[in-house]
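Re-run requested by the PI after the first attempt was lost when the workstation crashed. Everything re-entered from the original request form. Ligand of interest: S-adenosylmethionine.
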Amino acid sequence: MRTVKDYYYKKAKKDKYPARSVYKLEEALNKYKFIRRGDSVLDLGCFPGSWSLYASEVVGEKGIVVGVDLKAADKAARAGGSEIIWLCQDIMQPELITTVRRIRPAFKVLISDLAPGTTGNRWTDHQQSMQLVRRTLELASILLHPKGNYYCKAFQGEDFPEFVQEVKEQFELVKVVKPKSSRVESREVFVLGMGFKGKQA
Ligand SMILES: C[S@@+](CC[C@H](N)C(=O)[O-])C[C@H]1O[C@@H](n2cnc3c(N)ncnc32)[C@H](O)[C@@H]1O
């Protein structure tokens, strides 16, 4: 078990975010600017809420953030931040699309920090992660505006290169990002897709 509280853990406490994962979004965003003021953002796997809180500050009062997780998150947005709507739902359920569309028919940005419960079996964990990331790409293809952006956590393994290829088919520019705040020993990386090509006929 990890006992040493690392730099990003302490920084998150100081900056009043509920999780250190916020810096995995902030770092990529500072470099690639894939969320802008006024944007609508769909955050999949949002609990305990750091990414949604940070995205809400980036988009500001004219934007909106919708966060979805199996666990209920209910943090109040910060001053100057957009409204945040927290949904307690399974992203694999088809009803999610109808629920989200009642709030916004389409989004400028889809972000995902989804992580499956781990079993300790490397192959099973990789396959479960791939199911989640494939679902996020499917949701992106249904819910993103043309030219919209996508930033999604994935765990590297056998099927990862094929997934990156699938993202390349849907977005004009694709990068695999490993933020400094992501532990070196972790197999997690983030796939950034910018410029959604639009719904395929
Ligand atoms: C690493 S945490 C997200 C941390 C969050 N980005 C933050 O900054 O506070 C991953 C989340 O994915 C959620 N999750 C996993 N599978 C899910 C599913 N099928 N539907 C919705 N949420 C799911 C978990 O409940 C967990 O809260």
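Saved to the shared folder this time. The chain is about 35% helix and 25% strand.
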